[in-house]
Design goal:
There is one protein chain. The protein is an all-alpha fold and 206 residues long. The protein is built from twelve helices and no strands. The chain is globular, with a radius of gyration of 19 Å.
Length: 206
Amino acid sequence: MPKGSPELTASRREEIINACEKLYKTMSFKEITLKEISVETSFSRPSIYNYFRTKEEIFLALMQREYELWAAQMDKLAEENAAMGAEDFADAMATSLKNHEQLLKLLAMNHYDMEEHSRPERLTEFKIAYGASLDAVRKCLKKFFPEVDTEKFIFVFFPFLFGVYPYSVATQKQLDAMRDAQIGFKMHNIYDIVYTCVMQLIGGKS
């Protein structure tokens, strides 16, 4: 662990994570290296090893941050609303995930690699954030829809999130291939996919 105040350590970690996030908007997971990430920071590549051992740990930290932010939104939803109908809740869930496209992209692309090539302590930190998102959704369901089987919702909804990004975002190459293969496939946006799933799981009409 690098020497310095906890605030400095946290600031350096955030700078590295932000650099990774910036690159991930225009580059693929495979293309991004620690060298590329260091160029986007204010310190050298060797310094990154004081905070992260692999690029997978950096990506995992990015996904952890996304889960933390999303969980906070779900907690706020439960705290600020005495009750919610199916349509309003589905709208809130769909909007929140539309605003966390980065999370959905990470889930779809390289989740296994990130976990497999991260130290146990980093993976545990990530799992805590993931668990918090589960608890936040549970809190909403138990408050707004006590008649819904909460664990069944969790069992279906969270694995479903792994497939949202590929069904809502495609490159021109992928679209051309589907056209040439004569697949009658229509792309849908993140909001519509999530909204429909939530409505079906809580028994509303989609």
